[in-house]
Design a protein that fits this description.
Tetracycline Repressor, domain 2; 235 residues; mainly alpha; Arc Repressor Mutant, subunit A; single chain; 73% helix
Length: 235
Amino acid sequence: MSTVIPMKHEQLSRTEIGKRDKLRRIREASRALFLSRGYEEATIREIARLAEVAQGTLFLYAASKRDLLFMLYNDIIEAAAAESLAVPHAELSLAEALMHIALANVQAYTADIAIARLGLVNLNLYDDSDQASRFVALHGTVTDLVARLLRKGREDGRLSADFDVGLIAGMVISVMVEGLKTYLRADLPDIARMMRDTHGQIAVILRGLGAGPETLVIRDQRIAGWLASPRPGGA
């Protein structure tokens, strides 16, 4: 009876599958303990035990408890970036395309809002860790998308002013990020208020760049409904 010797690429594939399974268990254990015990109370030892990996193995995937939280936080941002890129931008007005990016972000954060809130409180997003580098890359992906939309708007004549695309893209992203922070900090997050406030500021930016009615129009009924909803207290 002949013995089949696995090819090298098959061995590597099994190794990769094993690594991915360990990482999945580490992610799940980290989330479960951060949510049940709190970020401060959860320990690396407990996370490793729940994930059924040795502590030394866990440190191959994350240098610290903070890195584990950062990894989960980046997973949220990665989902938001993927959804932002999937938006059919060419079919939308510029304002609507930007609002769909804002919506993709708030939906991703809402889907894992407890982890998003922990990340907002506990993370320094700009250090020299691997997860910080991942964050910067993901942030850059969405910023570049906004820059491309603005550049195309200028090339198509929808924006008439001459402007620094990178600078304005950064301003638009800052508006979205601040809206998300306000949304996450609220005891009762209000997506309508977040979308109204974000849209109001983005519209001001676009008008300053010469945007006309067709560039600003919002046809998506869900987004339009949020924008038209009454402000609390009539404010």
